[in-house]
Amino acid sequence: QVQLVESGGGLVQPGGSLRLSCAASGIIFPLYTMGWYRQAPGRQRELVGFITNAANTKYADSVKGRFAVSRDNAKKTVFLQMNSLKPEDTAVYYCNARTPDLKYNYWGQGTQVTVSS
At 30, is the secondary structure helix, strand, or coil? Predict the structure, then answer.
C-alpha cells in the first residue's frame, strides 16, 4: 500500500520559514518524481515545485528563489524548504509521487500552512 505522509505545516509569521517533509512508503522511491502542490481556499491546486529521479528541480514562478525541494532517497523522504513566506503562501500543501511515464501517481493527505501575523 502506497502512503505519502506530510508533516511540518503550521502557523508562521510573514518573512518566516518552514520545512515540510513527506515520507513515502510502498513505492520504489528513487524511481519517482516527487512534487509539492498547494491549494488555497477557493482556488485550484497548483504546482509549487518538484524534483526528478535525477535530482533536477523545477518551481512555480511565485516561489522561485524562496522555496527549495530536496530529497533523501535513503530515507524515502522529500522536503520543501520555504523561506521568506508571504500571506499568499497560505494553503494546504500536498506531496505528490509520480513515475516519469505518469503511469503511477499518488497524493498525500496534505498539511496546512498558514502565514499570518
Answer: helix
